[in-house]
Task: structure prediction
Amino acid sequence: MKIAFMFPGQGAQFAKMGEDFFYQYLEARNVYEKASEIVERDIAALCFKASPEELNNTINTQLAISTTSLAILAVLKKYGITADIEVGLSLGEYVALINSNILSFEDGLKLLERRSYFMATKVPAGNYSMIAVIGLSADKIEEICRGAQGFCVPANYNYSGQVVVTGEESAIENITKVLQQAGAKRVIKLNTSGPFHTKELYDASKCYKQELEKVTFHMQERKVIKNLDGSFYTKEDNIKEILEKHIISPVRFDKTIQTMQKEGVDTYIEVGPGKTLAGFVKKEIKEANVFSIQTIEDLNKLLDLKK
Result:
């Protein structure tokens, strides 16, 4: 058996995520408390008590999701469940880097705190939205975006059948009809609004570069797959430059899935809120064993299979 852990990105958040782990497992509670000390905010209260508006604010979302994923990871470790390969979608890549000991827990949380701040505040004025386009080729989506009136570009290539497009709200509204006319099976408006992973966040990436310079990374070979191009991090990589580019470059989770498949991964475990990444893998690899661990009930099902 070859296992991959997958960590969700922004948009997976939901009220009270991780709360059952917090109250039932000391290991999870310790993670929330340690994270709260590092960023000097009550992350547990943010996850369990914040209003939807607060939780959906980028400044809060990234810390909430990453801490929840790390807390669930601590419980998986308690039961001896580990992975051969780790991946994340956007901010989820930081959880992979932390869990693989490439990035320390403290540095990782501090970086995410600054990353979320810059991504929320260093955005050009305007109204932005994001849509998931299902059932249309990436080439056709790119062509339609190039012909749009206003700024809109692919931001996430999730799997071969789904691409997320972000841009100015008016441009997104206009191309929605064009995408449907071109044969898209579905066009879904997403629960995020910023022009993430595009050139619009150039200023945010430059501000973030200064934070990356303060951190030491301890690279390990063939453990974590990059969002940037679906390849493994190596010791030759300039990881600070990669994570700076990460903010303004499309997420290639489609290539990440291809790499995991080539590496012989047969068991995919999504760790954290939501079931999005598990869904991507199921769409692409029909025979894969896929699990989502976001509640204790999910964990118990996995443990039952191990017996």
